[in-house]
Amino acid sequence: MRPLLLIALLAVRAGAELRAGVAKADLDPPIGIHMAGYGPTRTSTGTLDPLEARVLALSDGTRSVALITLDLCFTFDEKAMDQIRAEVHSTVDEVIFHASHTHSGPTYSDAPQALQHAVPRIEAAIRSAAASMIPVQIGNAWGQTYIGFNRRYIETDGAVEMFWRNEPKISTTFPVDPTVGVIRIDRRDGTPLAILVNYACHPVILGPDSFNYSADYPGEMRRVIEQEMGHDSMAFFLQGAPGDINPFYDKTPLIEDAVNVMKETGRKLGAEAVRVARSIQTKIPENASIQTKTVILTVSNRWNREKLEEHYQATSGITRRLLAQDMRMPVTTFLLNRDLAFVGFPGEPFVEFQMQLRTKSPLPNSFLLGYTNGYFAYLPTIAAAVRGGYGANTTVNPSAVGTGERMLNTALISIYELLGMLSNKPAKPR
Amino acid sequence: MRAALTLVSSLRARTPPEPRPQGATTKLKSDYSIQMRLIPLLLLALSLSAQYKAGIARIDITPPIGHQMGGYAARTHGSTGIHDPLYATVLIIESGANTITLITCDLRSFVSTRLGKNAIISSSHTHSGPLTWELRSPWYTEAENKMLQAIAAAKKNMFPATLELAEGEIYLGHNRIKKGGEMWWRNPDALPSHPLDPTVNALIVKDQQKKTRAVLVNYACHPSVLGPDNYEYSADYPGAMRRAIESQIPGATALFIQGGAGDINPYRDKEPVATQFQAMEEMGQKLGTYVVSTLKKAKPITGPLHTHSEVLEVKNRWQSNQTIPIGWTAGAFGNSFCFAALPGEPFVELQLTFRAKTECAHSMLFGYSYSAGGVWAGYIPTIPAAVQGGYGADYNTTVAVGTGEELIDRAVVKLFELRGLLKDLPDTRY
Hints:
The complex is a heterodimer.
Chain A: H1 2-14, E1 19-26, E2 35-36, E3 46-47, E4 52-59, E5 64-70, H2 78-87, E6 94-99, E7 105-106, H3 112-131, E8 134-144, E9 148-150, E10 152-154, E11 160-162, E12 179-187, E13 192-199, E14 212-213, H4 217-229, E15 234-239, E16 245-247, H5 258-279, E17 290-299, H6 305-314, H7 320-323, E18 327-336, E19 340-344, E20 348-349, H8 352-360, E21 365-369, E22 378-379, H9 382-387, H10 403-418
Parallel strand pairs in A: 3-14, 5-6, 13-15, 19-21, 20-22
Antiparallel strand pairs in A: 1-4, 1-8, 2-7, 4-5, 8-12, 9-16, 10-11, 12-13, 17-18, 18-19
Helix pairs in contact in A: 4-5, 8-10
Chain B: H1 2-12, H2 31-49, E1 52-60, E2 69-70, E3 81-82, E4 87-95, E5 98-105, E6 119-123, E7 129-130, H3 138-156, E8 159-169, E9 173-175, E10 199-206, E11 212-219, E12 232-233, H4 236-248, E13 253-258, E14 264-266, H5 273-294, E15 299-300, E16 305-315, E17 323-333, E18 337-341, E19 344-346, H6 348-358, E20 362-366, E21 369-370, E22 378-380, H7 383-388, H8 403-418
Parallel strand pairs in B: 3-12, 5-6, 11-13, 18-20, 19-22
Antiparallel strand pairs in B: 1-4, 1-8, 2-7, 4-5, 6-21, 8-10, 8-15, 9-14, 10-11, 16-17, 17-18
């Protein structure tokens, strides 16, 4: 028995070690610039809670990645993301940008100076997270909570009516996904370093009458988790696929105590995340590994361009996004320890895609992250595109019908490839 | 009751939608949903006015004795005789300005661009026919000429027709790939396997005297009851099925279109020579007799025919710098019958997915069906099948992983467009 035990110990030592570090930066956007989410004309007048970039840096000893969660409606444009990537390239191999989709943040595309103010702060946070990396142990588990609903109400004749707010919390058209994915990363002494929470729901409790910067409910969720878990842990919110999911208390007017309503929703999600996080027994991964793969899909425009131009000239201008041709959309796949799969779509996938990913992925621990590494608006399922409703067949739908399905299949193939389950040579006949 | 009232009131009292400028009105019932309601009426009107025309012809395309055979690498010489002649049976369906020309052949595969724009050349995939496009013998050109003759003959005798569709389930084959990619060619004990599709569809063409003129059967199962030791030409079980139907319905011409049979074998695959023709006859009789029994439950097909064809360039799985052009066609008769034709051997799950997604009353996947240009695509496995491996899954296949899913999704989207269920302009209500 003894020699065997020794060999086993050596094998663990020989395996790569997972290291992690966290850091955050206040984006500190100036007051008085445009806010993103409810049309182009809203201008900020103050700050309710700070908008942050939170960085989780991970390394397996040979390869490193920085996952950046942003309290923003969208990630930055490609140029700004590449600028940051180039700047920190000597520190981390890969940077994944992910936005929470809060509707109470600035529109950085309208404010280049504000962006250039934020960029060095993010770079500093990436460096600080990477510099603070320590050996860690990791685990994950799942919970459930209902803070939102499917906002596309399908009538008996198949017509779709939008149903934005659902204060009485009545059950509505499916699907809705109550799944709370929780990943816990501990220091080697068992104290929590990072808690990641994946959930699908639009952060739109603060409505268009609110002109103060806020992370919306995900910010409050993080505060609850950090307070309960203690030990200077940092909480991260990973938005799922909420293209058709709204919070029950959508766009609560400020005079109806919107700020507290927003916090209550964040606390509800946070409480479930804490319950799950406490149940997780983290372990030192036997063989840490960080693998990423990005596939760029060229996606055609969905609409009849001529008709569209004609149609819109009469009314208002056409947005560049609605007319975009041959859009280059990155589908990002990140495997951690060949156990956890993070799939990033650059837009707003409908919730069915995250349910399908979990069903179809060879890794049970698979998480779909919308709003990742770019923004090309809504990604409905084919069936939803046919039935219609906001985000399904409207002016926020530039991409060809079936793009979401293509992305999901692309990601599944990437997962199989990274796991080494798809050879690039034909197998021997059996 | 109270819950129902709350639901109604909260639907009616919805807050203004997200991206809408303030002050815009929300129509309670949209133009779109009114259109949706008009669709049944519209379809009814169309069905009353829908005039189909049909033409049928059959021609013997049996190659000369001695011609090299296709289907089994193990064969050592050319054919030695004719068990039953090989035919091309043509069915033309005309609906207004649109036409499909189905050339159903007792061949392993066939590729030709000489048969006209609307031609779908569907091979039954019998393993007891000649090599065709791979060899391009004098017989190949002769067969093309004969197919052209049959098309001309069918066109000359077009008659006003009504169409019906019957659907049933029969188990005559199994999924020949076991877990781990091991092959399981023969299953005489008819043990269960997965995935499998027992669906058999029959399209019935009747003339104005309500006489059945054609029965087109779509079923997924390799015609490989006759094994490599057979050197006599035969249509295998689909030929026997036709004989069964034609003897039970005098005056009717039976046609067979192979489905997604890429991983489906007959229970009595490669039957020993002593009993091979008997086994083939029994299987064909069983299928034909069952199909006839389903015909009395047939439902009328209504709605105009619309078709779309295109060529999709996919990557070669083993040489990603090479592409493979795949011509495919999709067609819809209103919402009552949809089909898609793929020029290779789709795995059965693609047929199940296709049927689940089209939202047509009846759907058929035509495998082994060449149209619109491109090349023979060979085996088309699903993503999980490509990972699991096996014949046609990780060897003997060249199309990129995910090709099947992409073809099916494209066909599904196109079928919605053809039926007017996907508009080319966005809904501007939101």
